[in-house]
């Protein structure tokens, strides 16, 4: 019998909690619910879910503080998080992503969209765990981490160290949104002295060198960048 992935849903609004639970259960997930941040931390530590769907606007300990606590605890630090945010709260989205959340869905949301995001995050997390160093092939684009080579239709494209690292970082998690600070930390390590503008300049140069494949790198207004999901 195939193991069911377990999802912890955290929201203080009963109607939303039940809506999300019902739809995720309908997709074959085992769903656990919590309506406060304190309860979420307790359940996450004891149940070890495969994914946490976390509302940011919670009474008591809010979603950002819950995410920080989860990521600082060895028992829960590797559990992916999808944030539920109110429309227009770009600052909260950025803060949540920088705290370690993996994706976000804006309220009001379609249950089908949340189901698809949940499946995608779990799928990518499993894939990353299996092999984080394998060659990446996306249509005409090939990225070889071991040989540090990037090719389009078999022709090598010369990229700088920083450009290659940004491309590799984004392409390993298509669809995931990353802030500029997250990109800087991934490429150079924590606290590298570079501005948001520097990241933008690197992205512009990278897109130009990639030519027709440059459109794979998408700008998410007010948040950062993501690599396009391509089926």
Describe the model:
The radius of gyration is 18 Å and the shape is elongated. The chain is built from eight helices and twelve strands. Helix 1 crosses helix 5 (111-130), helix 3 (63-72) runs parallel beside helix 4 (90-99) and helix 6 crosses helix 7. It has two domains: 6-130, Response regulator (Rossmann fold), CATH 3.40.50.2300; 136-227, Arc Repressor Mutant, subunit A (Orthogonal Bundle). The protein is of the alpha/beta class and 231 residues long. The strands form three sheets. It has a five-stranded parallel beta sheet with strand order 2-1-3-4-5, sandwiched between helices. The protein has a four-stranded antiparallel beta sheet with strand order 6-7-8-9, with helices on one face. A three-stranded antiparallel beta sheet has the order 10-12-11.
How would you describe this structure in keywords?
8 helices; 22% strand; 231 residues; 5-stranded parallel sheet; alpha/beta; 2 domains; 4-stranded antiparallel sheet; Arc Repressor Mutant, subunit A; 12 strands; Rossmann fold
Structure, briefly:
With 231 residues, the protein is α/β, with parallel strands linked by helices.
Shape: elongated
Q: For the largest beta sheet, what order do the strands appear in spatially? A: 2-1-3-4-5
Tally of helical segments: 8
Total strands: 12
**Which CATH class of the largest domain?**
Alpha Beta
**How helical, in percent, are the residues?**
40-55%
- Mean residue pLDDT: 86
Report the major sheet. 5 strands, parallel
End-to-end separation in angstroms reads: 28 Å
Number of domains: 2
Rounded to the nearest angstrom, the radius of gyration is 18 Å
Order of helices and strands: EHEHEHEHEHEEEEHEHHEE
**Binned strand content:** 15-25%
Name of the CATH superfamily of the largest domain: Response regulator
